[in-house]
Amino acid sequence: MTYQRINLEFRDNLAIIELNHPEVLNAISQQMLEELKSAVSELADPKNGVRCLMLTGRGRGFCSGANLGDREQIKDESEESDSLDIPFSLDNTYNPLFLMLSELAMPIVTAAQGPIAGIGMTLALMGDIVLTGQSAYFLQAFRNIGLIPDGGITWLLPRLIGLGRAMELSLLAERLPADKALEWGLINRVVPDDELLAEALTIAEGLAKGPTLALGLMRKAYWKSFDNSYEQQLHLESKGQLAAAASEDAVEGITAFMEKRERNFKGR
């Protein structure tokens, strides 16, 4: 697929997806959404050897939310109805993308600056490690246009910052600055804007050299932990550990530890 609204770059075992519509602060149009789904499918293919994904945005903002001026998304404004077919049926648009990202068998690093709003906030928070520049702020602006939060954010936010703070962000639609987001535990690090990409790349490249199978199993275990009982989670850990222990990377890691040398993981 030819990409126009995103850039997809491969650097050895690292894939970088950059949202690429800075004129509208990378608001997500139908075209961008389809390109995102295609890119995630492409990098998830084992033949491409990708072991980590990094998400970022071109220009001064990560993503300002859905592009409500995109006529491909708002299709039905018939005279007989006052309702809009907003970007979504979610089950056919955004939801498949976020399910793909949640099930990706590799770590995700987000590097975000400027506005991180609406569905763009959900996208940013799909990162396992989320870094922002000091200029960044988060915004759940759905109430301002008479809609409800979507993309799974009503599931994700309470688990990250608690129900009270999730309600506050959504009901009041106030900006949450990067420093406060860090204090709340919503993100991992805040760095100067001009250091953001370098810092994120250092982390992403380190993860791309790691034991990918084990890292993917870690992601799966933590995502499942929200819904599993303690007993179910113990069982999931047991199955995951058996799979990890059978990997070449586990043999390499243990051998390197015993021989007191640097590890050389292959991602398998």
Describe this structure in words.
- This protein has 268 residues and is α/β, with parallel strands linked by helices.
- It has two domains: 6-208, 2-enoyl-CoA Hydratase, Chain A, domain 1 (Alpha-Beta Complex); 212-259.
- 41% of the residues lie in helices and 15% in strands.
- It contains ten helices and nine strands.
- It has helices spanning 30-44, 94-102, 119-124, 153-161, 163-172, 178-184, 196-208, 212-225, 230-245, 248-259, and strands spanning 6-11, 14-19, 52-57, 108-112, 115-117, 129-133, 137-139, 176-177, 189-191.
- The protein has a six-stranded mixed sheet, sandwiched between helices. A three-stranded mixed sheet has the order 5-7-8.
- Strand 3 (52-57), helix 2 (94-102) and strand 4 form a beta-alpha-beta unit.
- Helix 8 (212-225) packs antiparallel against helix 9 (230-245).
- The longest helix is centred in the C-terminal third of the chain and has 16 residues, at 230-245.
- The radius of gyration is 19 Å and the shape is globular.
- The model is unreliable at 73-83 (pLDDT under 50).
